[in-house]
Amino acid sequence: MAIQDIYPTALRLLGRPVLVVGAGPVAARRTKGLLDAGARVTVVAPVACPALAELATAGLLNWEPRPYRPADVDGVWFVQTATGDAAVDAQVSADAEAQRIWCVNASDHEASAAWTPAVAVVDDVKIAVNAGGDPRRAMALRDAVATALDTGDLPLRRHRVSGTGATAGSVALVGGGPGDTGLITVRGRRLLGQADVVVADRLGPRELLAELAPDVRVIEVGKTPGHHPVPQSEINRILVDEAVQGHRVVRLKGGDPYVLGRGGEEAEFCRQHGVEVEVVPGVTSAISVPAAAGIPVTHRGLAKGFSVVTGHEELSEVPARADHTVILLMGVGQLRDSAASLARAGLPQGTPVGIVENGYLPNQRVTIGTLGTIADQAEAAGVANPAVIVIGDVVRVSPFAPSHFKTADYSTTSPNAARTTKTRVLTP
């Protein structure tokens, strides 16, 4: 039988009588699938394997503990034979054929009137693969397709409303990570592939927006320091309004929605208005962007903890010690004032400071100095947001930092850098 002789279709067996002849492991697997489809299953076999016997004991199927009889196929919609005896399987198949009943013959796929594909289910999508009678090949292909759907590499988005009414909309707050498309979570990528509407920040994995279907609407709500063209109240309203219209909405954020991303406010607003909301954590830039420059936020013997702040006024609340890492997000504009505040709080002028611009992106750039020099260095180099500033002894671990922070001229170049900046690092 050639593969072109197969006509793929799907059977709705809910409530319909089905016959399984045989009760070994193969029959047990097939029976489980038939029960999952809602079929009324009768198993005919003198002896049943433990898995099938348990299903019979639980009342999920009817087991006739005897040999097969030709009359067993009377009145059924579908037959699966898997006795392990080719002669018996052939007889069952012939009896079914005589009554124009579709039968899967597990002993001889070439002679079988129907084939059972390798099956996987992802959400409400059922994948069925036939591979020319090669079950291992079919399973490998099935698994590959299921994985691609799970990871968002293949689209799961609905294009037709099922049922008589409109589907309920939903909102997913997806943390997209620091910007590299490979750092979004599998769940986040999958939800993005299902979205009808994407409400996008300026940061995050923007390249993924180009992969969306042409009819997916992208609503830009990106903010820059001191400039919020779409206020938070309006963003909240957009999320709810789109979901109420039955759309699957993804709020694509940079970093993590719950780490200085106002995701908690958005989730609360959605719930207050009866909209289902899911929060998908992301790789927060506060930790991942320093890592892009080889800077850990904690390190044995250097730092036991860290604080993440976004505003200059918050610095008075963090420990002013070189062994406690301070991470400033979007803090380039206030860098000079922030450095002065930490110095007044007791942090030594020689405390190492690293700035990572555009973490993980092709134009990533790293500038390293000290608390006393970093503001001048950043100004001279034209450092700009988006950037993460790391203050503390952990900066010494970076491969871009000079050994022991001795006075030296060096180039701070990240592995992905498109630009190189000359800086001068001073230590006390």
Explain what this protein looks like in three dimensions.
By secondary structure, the chain is of the alpha/beta class. It has ten helices and 19 strands. The protein has helices at 25-36, 50-57, 86-98, 135-151, 186-194, 232-244, 263-272, 285-292, 335-344, 374-381, and strands spanning 17-21, 40-44, 62-64, 78-81, 102-105, 118-122, 125-129, 170-175, 197-200, 217-220, 248-253, 276-280, 305-309, 324-329, 352-357, 365-370, 387-391, 408-412, 421-425. The strands form five sheets. A five-stranded parallel sheet has the order 3-2-1-4-5, sandwiched between helices. Strand 15 (352-357) and strand 16 (365-370) form a beta hairpin. Helix 6 (232-244) crosses helix 7 (263-272). It is elongated and about 95 Å long.
Helix content: 25-40%
| Class per helix and strand makeup | alpha/beta
Order of helices and strands: EHEHEEHEEEHEHEEHEHEHEEHEEHEEE
Mean pLDDT figure: 86
The span between the termini is 82 Å
Q: Tell me the Rg in angstroms.
A: 31 Å
Low-confidence stretches: 406-428
How many strands, what sense, and barrel or not for the largest sheet?
A: 5 strands, parallel
What percent strand?
15-25%
Strand order of the largest sheet: 3-2-1-4-5
Question: Rough shape?
Answer: elongated
Number of helices in the DSSP assignment:
10
How many extended strands?
Answer: 19
